[in-house]
Amino acid sequence: MTTITVLGTGSWGTALANVLLDNGHDVMMWGKTQQTVDELNHSKTNQKYLPGITLNENMQATSDLKKALSFSDYLIMAVPTKGIREVCQKINREADSKKVIVHVSKGIEPQTFKRISQMIEEEIHEDFFTGVGVLSGPSHAEEVALRQPTTVAVASDNEAIRTMTQDLFMSDYFRVYTNDDLIGVEIGGALKNIIALAVGITDGLGHGDNAKAALMTRGLAEITRLGTKMGADPMTFLGLAGIGDLIVTCTSVHSRNWKCGNMLGKGLSLEEALSRMGMVVEGVRTTEAAFEMAQTYNVEMPITEALYGVLFNNEPLETNVKTLMNREKTNE
Ligand SMILES: NC(=O)c1ccc[n+]([C@@H]2O[C@H](COP(=O)([O-])OP(=O)(O)OC[C@H]3O[C@@H](n4cnc5c(N)ncnc54)[C@H](O)[C@@H]3O)[C@@H](O)[C@H]2O)c1
Ligand SMILES: O=P(O)(O)OC[C@H](O)CO
């Protein structure tokens, strides 16, 4: 049995804590919302994020970060990309020992173009830092919390973090592969959300499966182009953190990014769609980052550019579909 601290009491942090508890580990969750913390402790549920699901009976949580950090030196960080730096700064204030941090978030920071492991490395003081990894792949919290078969990859430059994380999470319903391409695993997880938004839009517009397949296939080409420019191994995009996650996010009824895109396709504004979601839709912020990266590094990303125009410049959906279809003819 290992002690583990999970930071973030949203859908994904809760589902992953449940996997670790099912594996017999001693887990402490930390969240900033006292009501959710109380519910996890007393009802063993998290109705806002995982409605109708009863969690492991040993589920425990606290809103006291110092207590959560003194519980374990192995941290799972499960907060949206936007909150990563803030949580790291809080760790610097409250920690008293070195930590391994495995994050499970999927995004890239606009303007800096930083991946999440890079933000963590920048923010966490060396006195509190052992190393960083990422757990990613096709995995919706709603299914993991129901113990439905799921496969993911763990990546880190540190082999001990890869194998330790694999050992802690592996179970008969949660299979973990190691991967030594940290850049590729993080980029794949982040960029697939852009394509899922685009697929949601095309589905919302009433287009068919041909359009969906086209966006996924040409989307994977964009992800691979930018990813390799950032230093990823192109083969990673044919694995769980690449095409695997792209498939699930573009086709699952659980996907927040697909649902948000679908509402846009049906005519809602971005503000309306986001407020109806009530959960993080990482692809919106990542579209901003990837659009800027494409310009800066001169990478061709037509789907990302079209989506950026829709999300941030109020460009009409149908016009952008026509623009994509009528781009200069080219070779596949
Ligand atoms: N939900 C999934 O199925 C799933 C699966 C794989 C990866 N992810 C990724 O995990 C990350 C978290 O997603 P989620 O689905 O759990 O989101 P969510 O919207 O369900 O929950 C987010 C949680 O983070 C908390 N939070 C937000 N900002 C915070 C801050 N600054 N400090 C502390 N807590 C903060 C919120 O209170 C909430 O509890 C995202 O990057 C997402 O892409 C989600
Ligand atoms: O629900 P989404 O769109 O945030 O996707 C969640 C996970 O990344 C799927 O693997």
Automatic annotation (TrEMBL):
* Origin superkingdom: Bacteria
> What pathway or pathways are given for this protein in its record?
Membrane lipid metabolism; glycerophospholipid metabolism
Sites binding substrate sit at: 106, 256-257
SUPFAM superfamilies per the UniProt record, alphabetical = 6-phosphogluconate dehydrogenase C-terminal domain-like, NAD(P)-binding Rossmann-fold domains
Q: Which InterPro entries match?
A: 6-PGluconate_DH-like_C_sf (IPR008927), 6PGD_dom2 (IPR013328), G3P_DH_NAD-dep (IPR006168), G3P_DH_NAD-dep_C (IPR006109), G3P_DH_NAD-dep_N (IPR011128), NAD(P)-bd_dom_sf (IPR036291)
**Gene Ontology CC terms, in alphabetical order:** cytosol
Task: Give all residue intervals belonging to the Glycerol-3-phosphate dehydrogenase NAD-dependent C-terminal domain.
Answer: 181-319
Q: Where does NADPH bind?
A: 11-12, 32, 49, 106, 141, 256, 280, 282
Residue positions of the active site: 192 (proton acceptor)
What biological-process GO terms show up in the record? Answer: carbohydrate metabolic process; glycerol-3-phosphate biosynthetic process; glycerol-3-phosphate catabolic process; glycerophospholipid metabolic process; phospholipid biosynthetic process
**Domain named Glycerol-3-phosphate dehydrogenase NAD-dependent N-terminal: residues:** 4-160
Tell me the compartments it is located in: Cytoplasm
Entry GO MF terms: glycerol-3-phosphate dehydrogenase (NAD+) activity; glycerol-3-phosphate dehydrogenase (NADP+) activity; NAD binding; phosphogluconate dehydrogenase (decarboxylating) activity
- What is any Pfam family matched here? NAD_Gly3P_dh_C
Q: Which keywords has UniProt assigned to this entry?
A: Cytoplasm, Lipid biosynthesis, Lipid metabolism, NAD, NADP, Nucleotide-binding, Oxidoreductase, Phospholipid biosynthesis, Phospholipid metabolism
Main subcellular localization, coarse class? cytoplasm
Per the record, what are the reactions this protein catalyses? sn-glycerol 3-phosphate + NADP(+) = dihydroxyacetone phosphate + NADPH + H(+); sn-glycerol 3-phosphate + NAD(+) = dihydroxyacetone phosphate + NADH + H(+); 6-phospho-D-gluconate + NADP(+) = D-ribulose 5-phosphate + CO2 + NADPH
EC number(s) recorded for this UniProt protein: 1.1.1.94
**Has the keyword Transferase been applied to this entry?**
no
Class of the enzyme per the UniProt entry, highest EC level = oxidoreductase
Annotated sn-glycerol 3-phosphate binding lies at: 106, 137, 139, 192, 245, 255-257
Which purpose does this protein serve, as stated in its record?
Catalyzes the reduction of the glycolytic intermediate dihydroxyacetone phosphate (DHAP) to sn-glycerol 3-phosphate (G3P), the key precursor for phospholipid synthesis.
Sequence similarity:
Belongs to the NAD-dependent glycerol-3-phosphate dehydrogenase family.
NCBIfam families, A to Z: PRK00094.1-2 (NF000940), PRK00094.1-3 (NF000941), PRK00094.1-4 (NF000942)
Instruction: Please identify the protein, giving its name as recorded.
Output: Glycerol-3-phosphate dehydrogenase [NAD(P)+]
